[in-house]
């Protein structure tokens, strides 16, 4: 997602024991895989801790899932990977600090999945940060050889208000870690799929680190060109990213859905080397969620006509539209949201709302949470 705010700050609960390092995910007991059929048309929502207390309260999780099911939602996309930390015990990355303080026994992702599966809903966790890591993350400090670099040798870019580093999707160590990070939570919680977004990427100005230079030279017999927009150089790097996605596809147990939520195609490819058209027609993804956060209904309708989105209808896969439901000071009225949802449905698309607290939670609009919840339920029954 392009919209990010600081996480909720929670006070430690002293009556809970401190979190100890958990066993490797592969050794954890996996629940029986619940075969939840894919809905005819997805009506989903992204859920995250940023800012929301949802993940830190078992009662709140159960209530939220029940309310969403009652309002006609059939798919949940909970954030599981953000700011270099996970929202579950992982063999590959540290636990999110606020969750560690509140007690890891809560296990919000598995708890959410169990509650949703009891109600016939699918759960597809969202790996928000993809290949991006905060510059001060443990893995960045421990493995500088895994980082992509610019021509001048720098390895960070400012994003979301702080310096970020990018792990190299061509490096075997990065690939092993990334595939492990994604697949462990699917198996442990019996989830229905995973979602990558615009951070599963290779920034176009990066690729001049020692590892990438040597790999490119060995495969092509040439040095990387100084022009990072050189089309052949872009294509080679895009192929490395595609290769990682293909490896993930082979590793995940069937019938795990691979969902992708990219930005508009032209910028996705030219800035981030995400060739999501190729990934879709090549059967590397099963579910496409195109973000459309235009605030006005007219702008939203215009963006539904972008060429790649129009073509996507012929690719034989579900295509959903990401709609801004409410975020901080940007919460559309229910009339605007209803018009956008109906426009999407009329084009044959499902809808995924960003984000949970904007539906009828702490960022609900002027109508109030009760009225909005009732309207969503009616809208989804139409």
How would you portray this structure in words?
Helix 5 packs parallel to helix 7 and helix 12 packs parallel to helix 14. The two termini are 28 Å apart. The protein has 14 helices and 14 strands. The strands form 3 sheets. A 9-stranded parallel β-sheet has the order 5-2-1-14-13-12-11-10-6. It has a 3-stranded antiparallel β-sheet with strand order 7-9-8, with no helix packed on it. Strands 3-4 form a two-stranded antiparallel sheet. The longest helix is centred in the middle third of the chain and has 21 residues, at 231-251. The chain has a single domain, classed as TIM Barrel. By secondary structure, it is an alpha/beta fold. The protein is globular and about 60 Å long. The chain has helices spanning 58-70, 97-102, 108-118, 138-142, 172-189, 210-220, 231-251, 265-272, 276-281, 297-303, 307-312, 334-346, 356-360, 369-381; strands at residues 43-47, 75-78, 81-82, 85-86, 122-123, 126-127, 132-134, 156-159, 162-166, 193-197, 257-261, 287-291, 319-324, 350-354. Strand 1, helix 1 and strand 2 form a beta-alpha-beta unit.
CATH class descriptor: Alpha Beta
What is the molecular shape?
globular
Which band does the percent of strand residues land in? 5-15%
Q: How large, in whole angstroms, is the Cα Rg?
A: 20 Å
**What is the ordering of alpha helices and beta strands?**
EHEEEHHEEEHEEHEHHEHHEHHEHEHH
Strand order of the largest sheet: 5-2-1-14-13-12-11-10-6
So, the CATH homologous superfamily?
Glycosidases
């Amino acid at each position: 997602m392009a919209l990010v705010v600081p996480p909720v700050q929670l006070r430690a609960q002293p009556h809970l024991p401190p979190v100890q390092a958990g066993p490797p995910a592969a050794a954890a007991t996996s629940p029986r895989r619940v075969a939840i059929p894919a809905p005819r048309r997805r009506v989903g929502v992204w859920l995250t801790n940023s800012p929301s207390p949802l993940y830190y309260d078992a009662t709140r999780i159960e209530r939220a899932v029940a309310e969403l099911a009652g309002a006609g939602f059939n798919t949940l996309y909970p954030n599981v990977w953000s700011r270099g930390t996970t929202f579950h015990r992982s063999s590959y990355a540290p636990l999110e600090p606020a969750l560690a303080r509140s007690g890891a026994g809560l296990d919000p992702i598995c708890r959410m999945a169990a509650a949703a599966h009891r109600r016939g809903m699918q759960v597809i966790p969202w790996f928000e940060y993809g290949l991006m890591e905060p510059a001060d993350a443990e893995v960045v400090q421990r493995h500088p050889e895994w980082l992509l670099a610019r021509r001048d040798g720098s390895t960070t870019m400012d994003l979301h208000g702080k310096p970020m580093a990018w792990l190299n999707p061509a490096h075997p160590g990065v690939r092993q870690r990334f595939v492990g990070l994604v697949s462990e939570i699917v198996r442990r919680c019996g989830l229905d799929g995973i979602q990558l977004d615009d951070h599963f990427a290779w920034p176009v100005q990066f690729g001049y680190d020692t590892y990438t230079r040597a790999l490119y030279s060995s495969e092509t017999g040439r040095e990387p060109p100084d022009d990072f927009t050189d089309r052949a150089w872009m294509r080679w790097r895009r192929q490395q990213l595609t290769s990682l996605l293909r490896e993930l596809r082979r590793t995940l147990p069937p019938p795990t859905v691979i969902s992708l939520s990219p930005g508009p195609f032209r910028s996705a490819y030219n800035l981030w080397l995400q060739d999501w058209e190729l990934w879709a027609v090549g059967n590397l993804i099963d579910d496409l969620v195109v973000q459309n956060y235009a605030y006005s209904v007219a702008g939203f309708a215009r963006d539904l006509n972008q060429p790649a989105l129009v073509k996507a209808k012929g690719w034989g896969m579900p295509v959903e539209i990401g709609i801004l439901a409410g975020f901080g000071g940007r919460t559309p009225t229910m009339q605007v949201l209803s018009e956008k949802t109906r426009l999407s449905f009329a084009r044959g698309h499902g809808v995924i709302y960003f984000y949970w607290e904007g539906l009828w939670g702490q960022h609900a609009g002027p109508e109030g949470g009760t009225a909005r919840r009732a309207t969503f339920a009616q809208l989804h029954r139409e």
